[in-house]
Structure formats: structure tokens, C-alpha cells
């Protein structure tokens, strides 16, 4: 089952100024995550059971919440250190 992905307000603001290559990497990573949001080879858990994180583009970290009942992933934080 493929999950829908949406960006929360904070995450949308964090995309401003993100380099094109980083943006492309984020999109590719979230495409993979949408197919398997809890894949232990691509993502890792946090202290909250619905929250997970994934690395993108070698220098980025995306934090998202998974709502299995709604088949929805909500991106809450995008960090780019590149």
C-alpha cells in the first residue's frame, strides 16, 4: 500500500533555499518512504511510536509522522546540512 505524503507548514518553510539536488533527493527519499514508511533499512524510529526519520542526499534528515489508518505520512521537519 502506498501512503500519501504531505508537508506540514514548518517543513514547507524549510524547503525555501534548499539546493535543487537536495530537493530532488528529498523527493526520491519520500517516494521510497511512501511505499514502506517503517522500512528499517531506510528509516529509523524516534522516541515517539508514530514518528520516524530518514536521511536524504547524504546531508539531510527528514522527520515525519505515520498515520496508518489514513495511509498518510506528514513531514514535520526537513534539515539540510550540506
Task: Write up this protein.
By secondary structure, the protein is α+β, with helices and mostly antiparallel strands. Helices cover 27% and strands 37% of the residues. The chain has helices at 9-14, 20-35, and strands at residues 4-7, 43-45, 51-56, 60-67, 72-80. The longest helix is centred in the middle third of the chain and has 16 residues, at 20-35. It starts with a strand and ends with a strand.
Which descriptors would you attach to this protein?
82 residues, alpha+beta, 5-stranded mixed β-sheet, 5 strands, globular
Question: Could you tell me the number of beta strands?
Answer: 5
List the total number of helices: 2
Which regions are unreliable across 5 or more consecutive residues at pLDDT < 50?
A: none
Task: Name the assembly state.
Answer: single chain
In short:
The protein is of the alpha+beta class.
Which helices and strands appear, and what pairs or packs with what?
Layout: E1 4-7, H1 9-14, H2 20-35, E2 43-45, E3 51-56, E4 60-67, E5 72-80
Parallel strand pairs: 1-5
Antiparallel strand pairs: 2-3, 3-4, 4-5
Amino acid at each position: 500500500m502506498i501512503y500519501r505524503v504531505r508537508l506540514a507548514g514548518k517543513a514547507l518553510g524549510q524547503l525555501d533555499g534548499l539546493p535543487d539536488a537536495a530537493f530532488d533527493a528529498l523527493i526520491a527519499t519520500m517516494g521510497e518512504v511512501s511505499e514502506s514508511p517503517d522500512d528499517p533499512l531506510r528509516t529509523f524510529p524516534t522516541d515517539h511510536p508514530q514518528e520516524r526519520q530518514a536521511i536524504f542526499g547524504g546531508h539531510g534528515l527528514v522527520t515525519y509522522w505515520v498515520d496508518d489508518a489514513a495511509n498518510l505520512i506528514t513531514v514535520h521537519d526537513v534539515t539540510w546540512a550540506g
